[in-house]
Model the fold of this input.
Amino acid sequence: MEGPANTLAYMIAGYAIIFTVLAVYLVSLVVRWRNLRQDEETLREIEKKR
Amino acid sequence: MDAKPRWLSVLDVVTALMLTAATIMVFFYAPMEAVMGPVQKVFYYHVAHAWVGMLSFIVAGIAGIAYLRTKNIKWDIVGLATVELGMVFMLVGIVTGSIWARPIWNTWWTWDPRLTTTTIMELIYAAYLMLRQGIEDPERRARFGAVYAILGVVSVPLTFFSIRIFRTIHPVVIGGGDPGADGSFDMTPKMLQTFLFSLLAFTVLYADLMWHRIRLGRLAERVEQLKLRLSQ
Amino acid sequence: MSATTHTVNEPRALPRYLSALWAVIWKDLAAEWRSREMLSAMLVFALLVILIFNFALELDALARQTVTSGVLWVTFAFAGTLGLNRSMAVEKDRGCLDGLLLAPVDRSVIYFGKALSNLVFMLAVAAIVLPVYSILYNTNLFRPGLLLVVLLGSVGYVAVGTLLASMAIQARTRDILLPILLFPVVIPLLVAAVKASTGFLQALPIEDIRPWLNLLVVYDVIFIAAAFMVFDFVVEE
Done:
């Protein structure tokens, strides 16, 4: 019996993708939230001035 | 309206814990598969991602119907959130599936019904987003998005079915792998537990991310309303 | 469901519905007959696609057996997209849609009218493409089974396509958007149409072809019903 195939590289690639994508998505949520909050503040300022 | 609800913070913590637990189970609890080796462990999260991709799809259809009936913009926000999430998860599902397939079947791709259908679902997700992008009026955007989501969801079972018949009549082996085999292996009880727990953890992750994305969507809607008001 | 369903229950509603339907169809057919822009564009396009396939694929006698249906349906799908786009764009640009909306008739008449005139155009293209292909490649495409598949496939294609085209032309990215929306959703139809066409061309036993014909009919029924239910939401202003 030769034992399981050496597919370690593929496993690492797979999990790297999984965690990277998750991290990138979370970052995108945070960045978009911040941008929108800033937009909201700016727009409310403008509205007050009218 | 802006303060982060306490329950969301709780859910965040629960999600993080479950994901950590699932990852530990995958790497330290589930045994190594005898033939495929380490790459088999990709399977747990691969299926979990595909599962969330499909769940999102169904939620998109439901949100579409709900919007058309109630005309309440919150359903449009839900629809957009679930399509965005679904697209991301499904993509990871497809890619990890490909990574798993490569060493097992010696091919990066096979046109089997499940893989082909999930790719088509991904394209429907993308089409939905492109449709929205081209429409500026928020109400029309929501309406059209809802309509397309419904049509998309209705078409997918038919697509799967048609490719299934296609494959059973023509078991053509394209790419070297036997399309009948789904890389199946016998799951020991520990593997099964890890598998089921991964599905559960990712469902919780989906709920958590949906909540966050819906909050983001509500904020975006407020900003858009402000812009529209000020431009009049 | 629809606010105008009360009109359907009146005693003389059906003839009025049908005459409105005919009016919509006739308007399109007459307009197109006068200018023939769309039809000629679809036709030229279809013939060009066949030409390109001739060079892209080595269509020797043997390969042609298996590939003819695919070439035909790709041609129909792309030419169909042109026709759908044009047909709906004309409405929007000339403001015809608004006029139709004011008519005292159930909204669905617009959908069915447009869909039927689109169907006529698609079948007109098929009526030319089939003989041309038969001549160019010396294969007889005029088998009744194949013609049935062309009809069923066109019906389904036009049912979904009309609806999606109505949405697509209202978006900024109108021309490119229709194929993007349409093709993923129309795949079961294309798969079934190609397999059924091949079946008839190769004179396979009817039991082999039956599942594909069934799928075509199921697709048509489901999507005509879905489009009918949802069309109101696409044209409301």
